[in-house]
Amino acid sequence: MHSSTSAIPLAGDARCEAPITALEIGMFLVLLGSYALNAMDRQIFPLIAADVRKEFGFGLAETGLLSTIFTLGMAVAGVPTGYLLARLSRKTVLQIGIAIFSLGTLLTAYSHSFADMIAYRAATGIGEAMQLTVVIAVAASYFARYRSTAVGAINFSFGIGSIVGPLLGGHLIGAQRDWRMPLVVFGVAGFAAMALIAITLSKRMTENASAADARNDQRGATTMWNRNTVLLTAMSVIGGLCIYGYLGMYPTFLREHLHYTPSDAGRVMSIFGFGVFASIFGGWLGDRFHPKLVLSLSFAGTGLLGFLLFSGPTGILVQSALSFAWGLVVSGVLYVNLAGYHIKAVRASLTNRATGVFVTTLYGAGAFAGYIIGGIAARFGWNIAGLAQITLLATIGVVLTMLLRIERMSLPVRKP
């Protein structure tokens, strides 16, 4: 008989016997800081998309593709990165990923056409896939007691970048009157982050594999081809289409349909980042409560918010509140726990590969999310686009959640 999961420490978790030190926390914060920098760039391109479209004459669907094509790079690199981690150290793969991401960001600022710009944007995704796969794998293995909570901390850092990125980017655009400036600034900052990681991050943290509780680990699947992983993969595809339909084209919706100024659109998008701050709490929910409850309510909330964002009130205060709620529910709870449950569906030895599958499927779907929702909006209007790509898909996600077999997942069990 299955009982709801709890956040009680696992008996075999190495972290139980050895309390985490301030130095270890500091190293993990450096790791999170590098990902926050990544998030800043992710929020910048949708903000400058209207300016890029105006200068180059791109169509709405093409602009949406540029906003989300980096996820195609993530999809291409996700699973191979999992295998690469079996041959190189996590720290090495992390550094390579940041270098690729930063170079692609810099080159985007010097694009001359759609062809080279889309190539650079896709390249940044390859780098981010390598970085994100390592960061999630480190968090899940080093903080094995609270895997979803640790993944939540990663998304928390994304929230910081989501706030700082649009605000700083909007300021740089306004001061320099040049959409290229934020890309140059964040690209250079990425190489600075590489130097900081090389100096401060110990392989003791990145290569550590905390011992998981043997009784619980035996409940996870011994192969990636299992019922729960297949269902979670389908849910990750839906999550990618919903999340990046919003991230890729919502700023364009604000500027072109609701006629917001760049600064107003930037402020609304930064409010989304405050919602993402709930990621640690969202991860705790995933560690504490039944997976079906957490995922089904998250998908239901996603569907409702998708409808309200594109069909509800148009005032800046209401749109800001909805963006905050989106960040909280979709990014803070749904995204975090999709990643966490992918890891919990298999044995600890498959952590790297499970993370790679999550990155590949969610971001692979996200690669075309902006193009699809932009194409639907151009033909049928934004109301139908939000209803079709977000609300309808989220409803399917609720149904898939009910098919999970929780008793076959590697979950902590309540103590008697």
UniProtKB/TrEMBL annotation:
Localization of this protein: Cell membrane
Signal peptide coordinates: none
UniProt-listed Gene3D superfamilies: MFS general substrate transporter like domains
Domain of life: Bacteria
Native source species: Cupriavidus basilensis
Keyword Transmembrane: yes
Listed name of the protein: MFS transporter
Domain Major facilitator superfamily (MFS) profile: residue ranges: 27-409
Pfam families (UniProt xref): MFS_1
InterPro entries registered for this protein in UniProt: MFS (IPR011701), MFS_dom (IPR020846), MFS_Efflux_Transporters (IPR050189), MFS_trans_sf (IPR036259)
Keyword Nucleus: no
Membrane topology recorded in Swiss-Prot or TrEMBL: Multi-pass membrane protein
Keywords: Cell membrane, Membrane, Transmembrane, Transmembrane helix
TM stretches of this protein: 20-37, 65-86, 93-112, 118-143, 150-173, 179-201, 229-247, 267-286, 293-310, 316-336, 357-378, 384-406
Family matches, as PANTHER family: CHLORAMPHENICOL EFFLUX PUMP RV0191, PURINE EFFLUX PUMP PBUE
PROSITE patterns attached to this UniProt entry: MFS (PS50850)
